[in-house]
């Protein structure tokens, strides 16, 4: 069966879970065409992401003139469908306060429908309930294949009305959430008759890449991984570290990632006199991330909003406990036997959890690592989760 994956920007350093999912589907016999609006190749460091970039068709690279002419040619052959799609795009644009942007999505959708038809694609799956799902919805209206999409959060749940989330849930063949919490948020906006088509398929890890871990380091080394954005809460983490180093002067934190708050984070490190205690590592390749986890006693994730972060799965698979916030899908994976959950936004609770980690004996840390590893292997094996998604896709076309 040939399917297409649709993502706005792909590949990206923070979207390796999509690549793993695609490759797992290919291992079980699917042919997957990668479609994206644009590339992030200038910021790619991982060789696997660079290779994936070469396998992805970036539609906007054709240029605006070619894109518009191809789309209008496709729509001219389907006048009634096109009129309905124009009305749909306009209505969704009015709701979002972005009419012009939704007309651009309409052009993109026509190009997606055209490419799917040319390539013999039978099903289109979009990642994220934002504009990729909008384009997929419009593409089907313009003669494209049946479609589905995966919702990660938190962005989709911040603006459900503007994103027409109810309408997308109604028109998609099925909708995937990456956690039970995510599905519950979809249920808030989907009509009750659509609830049975809201499914949970976890993002997955490649378990073979996580051999039995070495013991946790004796030094108090922490790692935090993610984009430097407001929702990740890294400035709060720095304040917690500033409190914790008073009692644990050997504490060191490595921040892996980058983003729009880098300047503010650098300034905060200076203001809190944490230069000796914090390293900014930038984005790292997958192998380097695993090495960073292996060299840490625990992962810290102080997020204010999340879906269910991949870095939590990777840390547990590496046999490292997690200190996180009790939000979204986090409590589904981080339980007391493998980590600590604290209230989001509570600096002192975060500092206390770091101190509790520092005081945890090595044998207890090893037991927590083993418990987390067993839990994530049972719930997030990418090959098992890909079969779930494959069965949903096949079910649509066998019905």
Descriptive account of the structure:
One of its GO terms (molecular function) is glycosyltransferase activity. It holds the Pfam family Glyco_trans_1_4. The chain is elongated, with a radius of gyration of 22 Å. The strands form two sheets. It has a seven-stranded parallel sheet, with helices on both faces. Strands 10-9-8-11-12-13 form a six-stranded parallel sheet, sandwiched between helices. Helix content is 49%, strand content 16%. Strand 4, helix 6 and strand 5 form a beta-alpha-beta unit. With 399 residues, it is of the alpha/beta class.
Please identify, by name, the CATH architecture of the largest domain: 3-Layer(aba) Sandwich
CATH class categorisation of the largest domain? Alpha Beta
Radius of gyration: 22 Å
CATH H-tier superfamily of the largest domain: Glycogen Phosphorylase B
- The helix/strand series, from N terminus to C terminus, equals EHEHEHHHEHEHHEHEEHEHEHEHEHEHHH
Shape: elongated
**Total number of β-strand segments?**
13
- Strand-residue fraction? 15-25%
Q: Give the low-confidence spans.
A: none
Overall pLDDT level: 96
How many helices? The count is 17
Q: Give the strand order, joined by hyphens, for the main sheet.
A: 3-2-1-4-5-6-7
Estimate percent helicity. 40-55%
From the helix content, strand content and strand pairing, which structural class follows?
A: alpha/beta
Distance between the termini: 15 Å
